[in-house]
Amino acid sequence: MQATLTALVAKAQTDLAALKTRPEFEAAKARLVGPHGELTALMKQMGTVAKEQRPAMGKLINETKTRLQELLDAALGAIATAELTAQLGPTIDPTLPSPDVGPGTYHPLTLVREEMCRILRKVGFTVADGPEVETEYYCFDALNTPADHPARDVQDTFYFPDTARFGNVSKKTPGERYLLRTHTSSVQIRTMLKGPPPIRIVSPGRTYRRDTTDATHSANFHQLECLYVDKNVTVRDLKALLDYIFASLLGKDTKTRFRPHYFGYTEPSFEVDLSAQHLPKVKKEWIEIGGCGMVDPTVFAGVGYDPEVWSGYAFGMGLERLAMLLYGIDDIRYFYQNDLRFLKQFA
Ligand code: DAH
After folding, report:
1. Ligand 1 atom closest to Cα of 295?
2. CATH architecture of the domain with residue range 108-346
3. Core-most of 7, 179, 220, 281, by most CB within 10 Å?
4. pTM above 0.85, yes or no
């Protein structure tokens, strides 16, 4: 009997080690310790063992049972580990660079923004920043855009409920509303209120309007704003700067054209068109790219600059529009979808 038990354990050890799947395991377990299994059969033979040998034999059977259980547990553990390893796939070294993903690329909007800032820095502009959550004062009132102006309509502007609080935005006056800035022109006011002229800033940033998204509209887009304040600034300076910027960004054959327009914060005001024959989206047409003008004396007076002494120009333009022209992109939605097939085209 003792020899049979030892042989049983030895055989179980080799058999169980060879198991690969759970069904195989269950079958082997039944064969060994199940109601009709080999150990059970041996236990049933206890009756035939001489009385004085029974305690020793009982002990031996118990030990065998324990040993078999250990072997079964080990076999099941090995199967579970193998299953997990198969699920996890090949082992990896997480400290190595991934073979599938190359270095990232800059977003096309980042590229255009940085290039514009570089071009403007070359002629003395510094980058200024302002908050995206604004008060009506910075976004409209200080820019000579009165309360009844259509731009302030809830149709066009995202307003926050009266209960909204923003610790990092300047305090609003009673009755005034917080909003998501509709243009980067608010940074003009913030910059002028910080100190006296001369001022020469470029301010790129996110802007928001209640537009329904389509190929050319997005409720969230980007603008780039410039403000120059000094003595004896003229429309000619403005035109020269715009010519310089667009020739630098888009190529020497780029031309700009002014069309009279109205903005509350500039007088005179213009819309700016550009044409660049080599650009696929422009060809020989004129494409509207932004707004500009000479800073309105009312705006100067509002920030405490003497309009008799100081003059200046300002302009603002959409960064998406620029990037679309530069790269020949025909749908604004590509910028926000984070599709790597799109993004990887811009190095
Ligand atoms: N803020 C205008 C817009 O969003 C663009 C603009 C027009 C900016 C005239 C200016 C400006 O600085 O002088 O459409």
Report:
1. 13
2. 2-Layer Sandwich (3.30)
3. 179
4. no
